[in-house]
Please model this.
Amino acid sequence: MAKMPKEVIDALANPQNLKTLATVSPSGVPNIVVIGTLGTLDEETIVFADLRIKKTKENLLKKGNFTVNVVGADLRSYQIKGEYKDYQASGPLADQFNEMVYKMLPIQINGVVLGQVEEVYSACLQDAGKKLA
Model:
């Protein structure tokens, strides 16, 4: 388990930043999606809403690992590697995300995915690949 540095947490918290999540199927087929709701629950936990992520969810349940990339307007970029931790279809966290998403887009979420942060890297040109956590 690793703790994300403040600058990575701040990058994930910025709604203007592009956030993608990559998974791989059991047969090795890569899958990447844009996840606008992706953020942090704490410095060791990634969280995002399930808004029609069928393949991604299947890959997470079967393989467990994922990679997040976040890119800011300043072109600062970070890569977070993690492991699937939990899926909550109901409860306080799911309710909170459902309310947040519904304000932006009038649809109901299917649930909330939580992932444990394992490693964090810079993906910036000046220090690409530098391990941050």
User: Anything to note?
Assistant: The domain at 6-127 is CATH 2.30.110.10 (Pnp Oxidase; Chain A). The mean pLDDT is 95. The chain has one domain: 6-127. The radius of gyration is 14 Å.
